[in-house]
Amino acid sequence: MKPMGAGLLLQSKTLSPVECLHFAMNLPTSVVITGCESLANVQQALDAARSFKPLSSSQVAALLARTEQAARNGQFEGYKTTNNFDGTAHNPQWLG
Questions:
Q1: How far, in Å, are 41, 83, 85, 86 from residue 92 at the CA level?
Q2: By the 8 A CB rule, do 31 and 1 touch?
Q3: How much is the pTM?
């Protein structure tokens, strides 16, 4: 689960990091991992975990509606639509 899409989702300026984390935590996932490259990232993750409450269906619908236009062409989903984040594509020797 990439709750912020390797940072690409935040470039859409349609949602905050905490909203991304809360949305991911609301899904039936086993684990949600966020990068913690700085103390500020650790604090953000702790704040998100402490403030999380399951989202209602209307909250989910509102979030999806707010991000719909940005999501329409996949511009902010390079982790899904390109090989930029594919370790195997960048290291074909792994395949033998």
A1: 32, 12, 14, 10
A2: yes
A3: 0.79
